[in-house]
């Protein structure tokens, strides 16, 4: 098998479908596709057509995730059918603001191409492809909403989380045509699943530095996200001496630099990615600063210890500067180990596709839907080299040659799991 050529399921086809999906964007100048938006609906429709062409029957679930499925014998089968347990391949279709075209989408399209290659192959399990609806958390702050629904981890506390326009998650569900009280229907039963395998760009420099097109993932970092609101007092920029100021933005600035200092002293990552200031006028001392904080750690313990330090620093700064600090946690996902058997299958697929005697295993500081899916099934991942390690940026790039090798490796990984399952029957 080879990823060469330009027909359905080839590497070129995968690259072109990733290009196609950029049309479904809320911005004319950039790619942005968030959960439960008109673009989400349009992307689902486009991807659905490719799933059908690959021999899968399709269904959008109660949380807006798009599923395709074939039975073990290759016959298209309605997702949700209680047939043989399924091996699920996929990734997500939502994006960050001003995104690249491969983060998520590549994994969905590549999974469809693999399903197409295997359409005439009898497997010892059903094969499903999923396009998860919200991995990034761009719209509501809480990431992994799609895969949390699919893994039965929906939390009713999320319904009232609002987007930047004040639209709550509940309202967005209704606007999209989904029934909030049916979200539980999206939950998958572990007995119906063989595993979840995702192909994704690495989003870091390790594979490129090692001059390797592919690697298998050993674990995914644990993450937490917060909104930190600092309230001071908005007053006249000319009439208020420094001794009388309670400047929320200066307090926030101190906190941002302290967060970086604290994180640099650990092996965790901390990022303040958004800052909003009120009233936001040139001649008014900022009365309010709201910032987001994204924390990641290889272990949950390391990540939580860093949060304790940041929280203490925040309260100290607030006290020194006479401002109030309020903290809301918007997202928490545990660090996730990829299952040994799926690591082995992906490594075997890479070895088969590249002819390499040794394959590279690496952990993922970036978050993935597998973090949620691990609650209901084994998860594994294949990483593809991306140029300059850049992601969450329009310059995100993968080489078509690497996609060709990934297609071979991912197909071989599925076949390795099929052999393993047949042997243990
Ligand atoms: C998803 O891309 C994340 O790691 O935030
Ligand atoms: Mn991403
Ligand atoms: Mn992603």
What does this 3D model show about the protein?
- The protein is α/β, with parallel strands linked by helices and 425 residues long.
- The chain has eleven helices and 14 strands.
- Strands 1, 2, 3, 4, 5, 6, 12, 13 and 14 form a nine-stranded mixed sheet that branches. Strands 7, 8, 9, 10 and 11 form a five-stranded antiparallel sheet that branches.
- Helix 3 links the parallel strand 3 and strand 4.
- Helix 7 (248-264) packs antiparallel against helix 8.
- The chain is globular, with a radius of gyration of 23 Å.
- The two termini are 27 Å apart.
- The mean pLDDT is 97.
- It binds glyoxylic acid and manganese (II) ion (2 copies).
Quick take:
By secondary structure, the protein is α/β, with parallel strands linked by helices. It contains 11 helices and 14 strands.
Query: Biggest sheet: strands, sense, closure?
Result: 9 strands, mixed
- Helical percentage: 25-40%
Gap from first CA to last CA: 27 Å
Number of helices: 11
Principal-axis shape: globular
The residue-averaged pLDDT reads 97
Structural class: alpha/beta
Give me the Rg, rounded. 23 Å
Instruction: Indicate the low-confidence ranges by residue numbers.
Output: none
Number of strands: 14
Order of helices and strands: HHEEEHEHHEHEEHEEEHEEHEHEH
Small molecules (ligands, ions, cofactors) in the structure: glyoxylic acid, manganese (II) ion
Quaternary structure annotation: single chain
Portion in beta strands: 15-25%
Key descriptive features of the protein:
single chain, 425 residues, alpha/beta, 9-stranded mixed β-sheet, 5-stranded antiparallel β-sheet, 11 helices, 21% strand, binds glyoxylic acid, binds manganese (II) ion
